[in-house]
Amino acid sequence: MHPVILAIESSCDETSASVIVHGKVLNNVIASQTVHHKYGGVVPELASRAHQQHILDVVNEAMTTSGIIPTSLTAIAFTKGPGLMGSLLVGVSFAKGMALALGVPLIEVNHMEAHVLAHFIDDPKPAFPFLCLTVSGGHTQLVKVNDYLDMEVIGQTHDDAVGEAFDKAAKIMGLPYPGGPLIDQYAKEGNPKVYSFPDTAMQGLNFSFSGIKTAFLYFLRDRLAEDPAFIEKNRNDICASLQLHLITMLMQKLKRAASETGIKQIAIAGGVAANSGLRSVICEAAEKYRWEVFIPDFQYCTDNAAMIAIAAHYKFLQGKFTTLDVAPMANLSIGL
């Protein structure tokens, strides 16, 4: 049987649906939530309510534009976690109801594994094994990918994710949410060597980003005490310096992982993979270390259902279905 799957993503503040047929993603419908902007971050209760408002429209659009009728579906896939519990529950409940109504199986997908498998939506595709630096607002991981459904986390953050460090630094500077993309934008016009920040030493291949947030807060506090207009006058250089520092922290561990494993197939995934500075630096490293680098299309870096769909495709092929009593999990590790 050729898999024809509807996939639903609702882990945080993006409601998304995608239809995949025989391993080919037909669409990737995403409804974003603007309600959080005035709060400077995602409000879980508001996120879950927005998912309830958007999910039917998003699924209907995905089905209509795909040209697939519901009775042709062979499975319904959804994000099990990690994510916000209320948001996940909306997607899980909708998927259960639809699967029950159509009499088709359910496929649960790990959100982080899906970010990695986003590399198999379009060409070129990495060969196994490869290393994937998965960087987002909620996670920072180094993953050794042995096969489609065989992944090993070999390094991860012990506190905050690098995406959170970007967003919190932007908030400290008074930039609107989400601030990470704005830092990237201002950094393009700045000098990354004007300011320096302390490193956070972690053993092995693990990361820590909580210290840099604190250091950045004190850095601005001291400068603003001397000149209240410091940020306004130096915004581009501040953003460029901070961005380079965070990227350097990521690249140090990625280079070490590549050296220790001998793997030269290198991928990046997650929302921060859209950062132009990171993309540039990793491509420079590819030339120096003879890596082959893979970066998904921008729409597949942020939270989206197409990556859930491609993950579900490979799970379908291996007969990995779940039952109707499945529950969402806010904290879910790769490999579990």
Describe the structure using short key phrases.
single chain, 336 residues, alpha/beta, Nucleotidyltransferase, domain 5, 2 domains, six-stranded mixed β-sheet, five-stranded mixed β-sheet, 9 helices, 18% strand, globular
Description of the molecule:
By secondary structure, the chain is α/β, with parallel strands linked by helices. The protein has two domains: 4-117 and 300-317, Nucleotidyltransferase, domain 5 (2-Layer Sandwich), CATH 3.30.420.40; 124-295, Nucleotidyltransferase, domain 5, CATH 3.30.420.40. 43% of the residues lie in helices and 18% in strands. It has nine helices and eleven strands. It has helices at residues 44-66, 85-102, 111-117, 162-172, 180-187, 210-226, 230-261, 276-289, 305-317; strands at residues 4-9, 14-21, 24-25, 29-32, 75-81, 106-110, 130-135, 140-147, 150-156, 265-269, 292-294. Strands 1, 2, 3, 4, 5 and 6 form a six-stranded mixed β-sheet that branches. The protein has a five-stranded mixed β-sheet with strand order 9-8-7-10-11, with helices on both faces. A hairpin with a 2-residue loop joins strand 2 and strand 3. The mean pLDDT is 93.
